[in-house]
Amino acid sequence: MRRRIHLVLTLVLAVGALVTGARAAAPGAPTDPCSGDPAVQTRCGTVVASDRFLPAIDSTFLRDPVHERTYLVGGTATHDSVALGQLDAGGHLVRLSHFLIRDFVYVSSAAMAGERVAVTGGATDDHGNRNPFVALIDPASGHLTWTRTWPACCYTSAIAADRRSTYVAMSSAAQSGGTPAWTVVALDNATGRVRWTEHTSDRYRYGTPEAVTLAAGRVIVTGYMQGGSGNVARMDVIRSDGRQAKTLTWHHGYDADAIAVTPSPDGKLVAAAGWGSDVAGSLVTFAAVVDPRTARARWAVFGGSSPVANEPAHGIVWSGNTVAVAVDNVTDAATTDESADNSREYEYVNQIGATGFDATTGVLSWHLVLADDPRAATGFVYAASLSRDGRTMYLAGMTSPLSFGVSEAEATTTLAYDGPASPTVAAVDLGTHQFRWVGRYNSGQYGDGYGTTTAVAEVGSHVLVACYLQRPAYGTSVLANYRQAALVAFAR
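Now predict its structure.
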């Protein structure tokens, strides 16, 4: 018998004042996670809340402009519930609620639906099937307004919402009973009922929608679909009545993906970002600007010039006439690490970076990389956000001492052996195109563990980072029992 539990557990937390500040790099301590390039101001973060039941996995900061509140919503490290944290104007965590959808929950995306919070992800049923779900939460009452689930045919990966409707994008394999590979569903916020459903109906066999946004009265979905010789980056522009206006695709060599999308400041255009690769596996940054009213691209580029080669995009913001993309800078650095148990050679390392494009022309304007020496540190960027005044882009990820991994997963494992990996946030001045400051939190207190960020936002006088700190569970792929969620603050 299937269980459907809609239980709400609410915790009221009293958290002290946020205390952060700048700290100079300690002489003779090159592995100090707060040390870095002396030309860039370095700050250490302070944990303001830490608990296994904080929103740590695939979390998102959301802002309610009516009540001047910020929410942090996501899955818990134990994967047992959807967690919703409420922050006041000063960035203090004042309330934490949990919503039990089913036994094992993953959260993939969340959005503000007026003054309520819409969240989507997957919940495992009694038979071990992962069923996609959408839930609408009323933060004022601390209750679920409604929850809707689907059979285990697909999974939801992205969501957007307005006061009337919640729009969720789903993915499934076409070979499973002929189910469409890409589906967008509009749900009524008052009742949870389906307003309309838009299915993929073209030559592509399967794919994954990665992001959803709203602009110019349209629903814009980006992701990838399988093409003839590889994957293509795709954007669907859907009118408010559910009819598909047009599908745009972009191809580069072998693979391509549009993993992020954001509206322009005036809401008339959208910008997408992702990556492309050729048959040899070389990566380039992908970016495009599209007019949703005509469903035509103003411009689209793969790379554009050499500084953005080997740089997959992981986030995007739009400020003024700049489309800024958060990227992983992949640098060749063949060498041997003698400190490991067995000396090993590595081919490249990743570093946190950002790239700016002219929003009108698509011309590459500037490019930044966090570290000049690729052998000094490695890092990945996982999230990006824009300051409230539009002048600063925040890049959130992780950095660590020298790593010899050749993939994100392998690098993470290596870091757990070689030293603590630190949750990191870098503030980029969009006017001067330089790093304003870099903040790190020392995760070394968790022994040989590592830490990484999942979301970043400016709240009051601080920049808050949601992260989890993790000790490796050797010989197992499930690390939930070793994770500690944390909310880390940096003075902005």
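The radius of gyration is 22 Å.
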